[in-house]
Amino acid sequence: MWREYLHKNIKIREIILIIIIIAVSLFYIYYGLKNDDKYDNKVVLYNKGDKKVYSLDKNQVIDIGTHKIIIKNSRVRIRDAVCPLKICEKQGWVKDGVIVCVPEKVAVEIYNTDKKKEFDVIVK
Predict the structure, then answer these.
(1) What digits encode the pLDDT tens for the residues 14-48?
(2) What pTM was computed for the model?
(3) Are residues 53 and 79 in the same domain?
(4) How far is the C-alpha of 120 from the C-alpha of 112, rounded, in Å?
(5) Do the domain assignments include residue 71?
(6) Domain that residue 106 falls in
(7) DSSP 39
(8) Dihedral angle computed from the Cα positions of residues 105, 108, 109 and 115, in that order, rounded to the nearest 10 degrees
(9) Are 99 and 46 in contact (CB under 8 A)?
(10) Are residues 83 and 95 in the same domain?
(11) Same domain, residue pair 47 and 33
(12) DSSP state of 105
């Protein structure tokens, strides 16, 4: 008798857990896709907690003291970084993605909606 009770409760708990996981996943998918539109062709710069948004279409140099962020031809790169390893500089030009400098707490997110995407790898 107790086995049947335990067996029924486990099934109900599993079903409830699956429903919760699906609901949370749909919520994040909906709001994640909805919020991506507001950053079309934008560069979001996070500098020690501050957030600034710049246009990817305008060529410009942004000096934040510890780094120079260069936006040119819908690409972004970091120059003149003061961090010891300069990994953020070595990333070079980025069209779509993220550049991060951990020691200086700087992150640059690039949202490029250009339809002419380049291939990373071509496999035959």
Answers:
(1) 888 889 999 999 888 877 666 555 778 899 999 98
(2) 0.63
(3) yes
(4) 16
(5) yes
(6) 40-111
(7) G
(8) -160
(9) no
(10) yes
(11) no
(12) T
Residue 52 tokens read as 């600034």
pLDDT above 70 for 108? yes
- The count of other CB atoms within 10 Å of the CB of residue 81 is 20
49/16 same-domain check: no
Tell me the C-alpha distance between 67 and 47, whole Å: 10
Length of the chain: 124
Q: From start to end of 13-118, where are the E strands?
A: 42-47, 50-55, 60-63, 68-72, 75-79, 97-101, 106-111
Integer distance in angstroms from the first to the last C-alpha of the chain? 61
Q: DSSP alpha helices (H): ranges in the chain?
A: 2-36, 87-90
In the chain, the number of structural domains is 2
Q: Is residue 121 part of a domain?
A: no
**103 inside domain:** yes
120 in a structural domain: no
Residue 65 structure tokens: 């003291």
Whose structure tokens read 């120079």? 68
* Same-domain status, 31 and 49: no
30 vs 94 pLDDT, higher one: 94
